[in-house]
Amino acid sequence: MKAKPIILVIVTLALGFVLGMLTSAQLRLHRLKPVRVYFSEERFREGFYSIIQPDEQQRARIEVILDKYAKINSELQNEFRKDLESNMRAFRKELDANLTKEQIARLKEMDDRRQEMIRQGRRDQRNDTLRTRDRRRPDSDRRRMRENQPQPPPP
Question: Domain spans of the chain?
Answer without folding.
Answer: 1-35
